[in-house]
Design a protein that fits this description.
The chain is an alpha+beta fold. It contains 17 helices and 11 strands. It comes from Oncorhynchus mykiss (Rainbow trout).
Amino acid sequence: CIALSVFSLPPHPHKPQQHYGITSPISLVQAKEADLVLTHRLTEALKPYGVFEEELELQRRIHVLGKLNTLVKEWIRDVSETKNLPASVIESVGGKIFTFGSYRLGVHTKGADIDALFVAPRHVERTDFFSSFLDKLKEQEEVKDLRVGIIDILFARLALQTIPKNLDLRDDGLLKNLDIRCIRSLNGCRVTDEILHLVPNIENFRLTLRTIKLWAKRHNIYSNILGFLGGVSWAMLVARTCQLYPNAVASTLVHKFFLVFSKWEWPNPVLLKQPEDCNLNLPVWDPRVTPSDRYHLMPIITPAYPQQNSTYNVSVSTRAVMVDEFKQGLSITDEILQNKAEWSKLFDAPNFFQKYKHYIVLLASAPTEKQHLEWVGLVESKIRILVGNLEKNEFITLAHVNPQSFPGPKESREKEEVSTMWVIGVIFKKMETSENLNVDLTIDIQSFTDTVYRQAISSKMFEADMKIQAMHVKKRQLHQLLPSLVMPKRRKHSTEGLRQMNDSSLDLSLDSDNSMSVPSPTALSAAVPTSTPVKSGPLGPPPSPIAAAASQPEIQASTMSPPAVKRPGSPMQEERKRLKSDSEVFYSILIAIVQPGVYRMYTPCTSLLLLQVFVAAILGQ
């Protein structure tokens, strides 16, 4: 039940080599002495980064898993007794822990969590796992916190009376008559086991994968939730490289990895084996059948049934960033193989905060640590929606979110608040016909924040003072927000402040480094006469069109408020609303139509409502 390292011997020189993958290998050349020397240097270069676990910590993990496995078997016997199963069945009922993810692959790092799956027979319900087993865990002295620890636990209930000791989760027949939640729980183990069975040499695969994972993390492209690749996706890319070069050692495989995927013609999928249909009517990735699958930009397909695309979150920007990094990795490894550079150069972290001229800083804050933990998780899971919105803007070429988050600044010392900050680098298109370009990102930002608030409210996790803030920051202003370890303070502080991104109107001087003009959403009086009645929505009055000349605003960070929730009023209140004068209705609609800057603030649904009110007023209804 504990994942152990598996060693593969090199193929016998006179024995036909096993074929791996969906195509023939590119090269069967055996490793040379120089390749082995480079591999040794690679191993030494990895050690300072803590990618290899020490023996003491490994033994501790094995001890914990062993104790947990015993605990699971005891718990399953207890549940069996409460359900009055025969004594003969109780003794042989079994139960087992399987590991998956980086630990099962053998590439876990110091302090990394273990992904574990509890497999139980059919008479043990999911409700039992989340009730009686949870109580049993709490009784253990070693368990300090069920949220924080070294093991993440999933549960799967198989349609078997007993769980045999030699159970192989790769058997597709185990999926018959299973709840979809159990199938999803099994998927992690099934995919991990398939990957290990589909590579020619597991040790070469592991060292290559450790290298690629470290490189991806150092280059800020390791995050499935933010639209880059997660651990299983990187593992499948490395596994495919191993299939194409089955006799190569790690130093060669790292170079071939960058060679293959810098030239890969996306969106052609990466497959480790031909997809199989088990006739279980489970949804699988198939662009011939499912129209939405045709729009996936960088498909990497899991090898276990039901096959899924592990990279559905990838966007145009994240794919462009990763392909560019592949090309740079190829250039560096070319130098390394020619003895013109050391392996350490591959792990040099690029300075994300010097890469772009313009950034959007996103802050999520909540009053308490517990609320902040839930709020940040929700906001982070939706950042890819913001990136997608920015990509659709005709004036934006690329939106690159940094997967690393930072503690956000506090609004005031007196007020208790916990905040987290993300930074998105933005590249604007250069317009040859115009020196200055006004870019309005109001709808892009508002659509994102509305989505977050709407889900928080519908899931009943939203609390007062949970906030999202977004502001435009120029490169030379980042030091005012980021920790000094990330961005050393400049000698000369910029006099320009940080721009509030609520209204997100940007004055982009493409040929210079002038500041962007972002008017405050409350400063509507600059565009609308003070005598004109304008009704404020949840964000205050909508912004006005901005002048082409850039201004010097002060540092400010106001809040993107949640959308107003409509509640049914009393009949008298509804009647009063209906009896509003036609002149007031016409006047409000007239302002929305005449003021372009105002009209842009309304969402399509609001605009449709305005038109309906307008028509109703004309017809006298």
